[in-house]
Amino acid sequence: MYIHQVAAYLPAQVITNEHFTRLNGLSHEWIIERTGIRERRKAAVGENTNTMAVEATERVLADAPLFPAAAVDLIVGATYTPHDTIYTLAHAVQRAIGVTDIPVVSISSACSSLLNAIEIVEGYFAMGKASRALVVVSEHNTAYNNEQDTVAGHLWGDGAAALLISKERLSPSDLLVRDLITAGAGGIGKADEAVTLTPVAKGIIMPYGKDVFIHACQYMARVTQQILERNHLTTDELNWLIPHQANLRITRNVLQTLGLPEERAVSNIDRLGNTGCAGAAIALSEQLEQIQAGERVVVTVFGGGYSYGAMLLER
For a Cys-Cys bond, which of 2, 77, 104, 305 suits 174, CB 3.0-4.6 Å? Predict the structure, then answer.
């Protein structure tokens, strides 16, 4: 299957590190040293997970004349910060584009949900139940975040991205999805309590950030090696790595393990913070025009809970 187009939506409001210096005393330098984050985006009043998903969808369809909304026969939405758990972001997108009587599902596997959503598309395509899918990932982290939390309150940003995926190639510039791996790791380490968002408690908390860091580094590097090896590729044949945008130190650790230079990694963490399952898709949208014919890209992700995955793309 092929990724035909990708587009992102980012809220206009920029929250710099100085905001947290004023709020809870965390310095710009301290945040940079530990996370690499300089600023992040915050949804405006009236914006939410659903509205951002719709904005990203409208943008991707506007960029894809060969993939009209009427051709969409599957919508998969993903988020762990829902605006509504019943009228989900996928339903909001369906209503916005006016396509009826098609499969519409929403999933959550924390920050790795992008690849789980694409794998669901792979399954629908394989069963002959769809041929043109819309995947939308959107996070409204600031709706749940506690900015006073000096452990994790400064990490989160808002944003959304949408991908158009077809069973057949529509354009020479389409990205071939050559391989895809996802897995859960719920029994590992402190997966059950390291990062949690219980809606009744109204907050994202990360009491065991070190455990998240260690396992994110290990699993993203390992699954990247795994997908390369089973496709008979070496790291030297990998042109771009798009990791989950959680922490610049995690990205650098994964690069070191893989033996990849830093310039091969696509990163937006410094500008956007941790945008959850939307982060890697936003990064792909930003990198899309720079990927040359014949180049290979691995998207690798890790989510709280825990879960992880990798996707190998070729242009």
Answer: 2
**How close are the terminal C-alpha atoms of the chain, in Å?**
12
Running DSSP on this structure, what letter comes out for residue 291?
A: P
**Phi, psi at 99, each rounded to 5°:** -105, 125
Among the three residues 140, 166, 192, which one is the final residue of a domain in this structure? 166
Which residue, of 166, 183, 199, is where some domain finishes?
166
Cα atoms in the 13 Å half-sphere on the side-chain side of 259: 5
Entry pTM: 0.97
Task: Return the amino acid letter for 64.
Answer: A
pLDDT tens by residue, 118-169? 999 999 999 999 999 999 999 999 999 999 999 999 999 999 999 999 999 9
- State the amino acid at position 5 in one-letter form: Q
Report the chain's C-alpha Rg in angstroms.
18
Q: Do residues 83 and 232 share a domain?
A: no
Same-domain status, 223 and 180: yes
pLDDT at position 106 is: 97
Q: Same structural domain for residues 161 and 179? A: no
Q: Tell me which residue range forms the domain holding 157.
A: 2-166
Instruction: Determine the residue type at 57.
Output: T
Active site residues: 111, 244, 274
| CB distance 52 to 108 below 8 Å | no
